[in-house]
Specification:
There is one protein chain. It contains 13 helices and ten strands. With about 500 residues, the chain is an alpha+beta fold. Among the domains are: about 80 residues, no CATH class; about 200 residues, Transferase(Phosphotransferase) domain 1 (Transferase(Phosphotransferase), domain 1, Orthogonal Bundle). Strands 1, 2, 3, 4, 5 and 6 form a six-stranded antiparallel sheet that branches. Strand 5 and strand 6 form a beta hairpin. Helix 7 runs antiparallel to helix 9.
Length: about 500
């Protein structure tokens, strides 16, 4: 913009000065200079060309100085605006609540926390190797640097090192693993050639997410945004791991690890008949599901969500349908709710009561104002606990009275504002139900935290079966190593091909 001002000023001054200097020979005053028709007898009336040149240069210099002065003022104003503290900007509702003394000190001084460690992960002893990817804040406005990454997607960079050659990917033509509003997921096989000999070729089972309509540019953009978010989130044993992406040409695909048992909601419903309170572990040869497994799932989901807070990333659509389960009973949180950023807000206001509605997992402030924060994720977590300890029942089913002539979300919001909540599930004791109610406080700032939920369910696990808890800890560390191998898959391939 500053360059345009300079160009316009210089061009205008040149034209004006030229016009004025040339017309000085045409009239006896300024006004008459632009009106009179030149006559041959008047061409040299005011002197020779030296006078014209002096006048031209003088006028030109005045306009140049004026243009430079204006540009300096504009630049100084912009510089001062950039230096405004982040807490004076709009949108402070997404700033994360500091939890530790060090964080509180940094927040109070308006200091931006250090960026997460680079992608990929490095394994750790106590935290199961949780290390988020690096974030690109080079062009990010100061007021957004503390915001969740899904509120500053356009400032995130896609990492070229995770780009996959489409020729090395085989996508199954069979039944899709799943589909949603904008994307479809299929099983695939990624080839990694450790040598030029085809006999040594190895293949990795993966899940491939692509636009529902590959020619729809909005869907392509949503897939690409989700890919950038997954790059930024990094890896954690309770978060779905990214393997790579395809972004060449018009293609937009996300290649992630394949989780064999599908979503946790379907898993619970399939195993209702095999549920037993005394069963401590799932046995493949004799399928069964125990109460301690439900506690383990609650613990793991809280661990994954606490990790997202420190990325930071707001999930927006936490529900058991978006939680996957492996054969070893380790869960992965998937689908970071990016589709909910789409301009079509009717997605939240579906009129049908016969299908699962995202609104049933949403906090009141999300329903009313479309405000999503870590506190709204806590509310959704409480609904997940209801799903867990009811073995997959649909929340609010046949509970909320609904008039088809009006918006369904209006009735859900009124129901919640009256203080009504989901009933205590059959397999949740009083203490677990109390945790659920703490998640559902109307005052978002009074809700419990994921850290508190982790501590509660860890204690429950140790009390029920300390051996089970130790075994789960070993599994999570093993999953960290497995995810590290996923990160090395592409680097090994590129190293061998070079």
């Amino acid at each position: 913009m500053t360059g345009s001002v300079i160009f316009f000023a210089l061009f205008s001054s040149y034209c004006f000065a030229s016009c004025y200097a040339r017309n000085l020979t045409l009239g006896r005053n300024f006004e008459d200079s632009f009106k009179r028709v030149p006559r041959a007898s008047e061409k040299n009336e005011l002197g020779d060309s030296n006078v014209q040149q002096i006048i031209f240069i003088s006028l030109y210099s005045v306009f140049v100085a004026l243009a430079i002065g204006i540009c300096c003022l504009i630049k100084a104003y912009k510089s001062k605006k950039r230096q405004l503290p982040a807490n004076r900007s709009k949108g402070n509702e997404y700033l994360l609540e500091p939890t530790t003394a060090d964080q509180k000190k940094r927040y109070s001084n308006n200091i931006v926390p250090p960026e997460p460690t680079p992608y990929p992960i490095t394994s750790g002893e106590d935290d199961f190797g949780k290390t988020p990817s690096r974030l690109s804040n080079e062009e990010c406005p100061p007021e957004l640097k503390l915001a969740p990454i899904n509120d500053r997607i356009k400032y995130l960079h896609y990492y070229a090192e995770v780009e996959i050659n489409e020729e090395d990917l085989d996508i199954s033509k069979g039944r899709p693993l799943g589909s949603g509003e904008f994307g479809i997921i299929r099983k695939g096989f990624l080839r990694s050639k450790n040598s030029k000999n085809k006999e040594t070729e190895s293949r990795l089972e993966v899940a491939v997410k692509s636009p529902l309509n590959e020619y729809n540019h909005i869907q392509q953009e949503l897939i690409y945004d989700e890919l950038k978010v997954m790059c930024a989130v990094g890896k954690h044993p309770n978060i779905l791991a990214l393997v790579g992406g395809i972004t060449i040409g018009e293609k937009r695909m996300i290649i992630s690890e394949l989780v064999e048992n599908g979503d946790l909601l379907s898993f619970l419903r399939k195993n209702r008949r095999n549920f037993t309170i005394d069963q401590l572990a799932f046995e493949p040869e004799k399928p069964s599901l125990g109460l301690v497994d439900l506690v383990s799932f609650a613990f793991q989901i809280a661990k994954g969500m606490e990790y997202l807070i420190h990325v930071p990333c707001v999930h927006r659509d936490l529900a058991l349908r978006n939680v996957l389960i492996k054969g070893n009973m380790v869960i992965r949180i998937a689908d970071f709710g990016l589709a909910r950023r789409h301009k079509n807000k009717d997605y939240y206001k579906t009129q049908s009561v016969d299908t699962p509605l995202p609104i049933h997992w949403m906090a009141p402030e999300s329903i009313d104002k479309l405000l999503f924060t870590q506190k709204s994720d806590v509310w959704s977590y409480g609904v997940c606990l209801y799903e867990l300890f009811s073995l997959g029942k649909s929340p609010y089913k046949n509970v909320i009275k609904y008039d088809e002539r009006d918006s369904y979300c209006k009735y859900v919001l009124a129901y919640l504002n009256e203080g009504k909540r989901l009933a205590q599930p059959a397999h949740a004791d009083a203490e677990i139900y109390n945790v659920m109610k703490l998640c559902w406080d109307l005052d978002m700032n009074s809700r419990t935290t994921f850290l508190d939920c982790i501590e509660f369910f860890e204690k429950e696990l140790k009390t029920t079966s300390n051996e089970y808890f130790l075994d789960l800890t070993r599994k999570l560390r093993s999953e960290t190593n497995n995810q590290l191998r996923l990160s090395n898959w592409l680097s090994d391939e590129k190293h061998c091909d070079s």
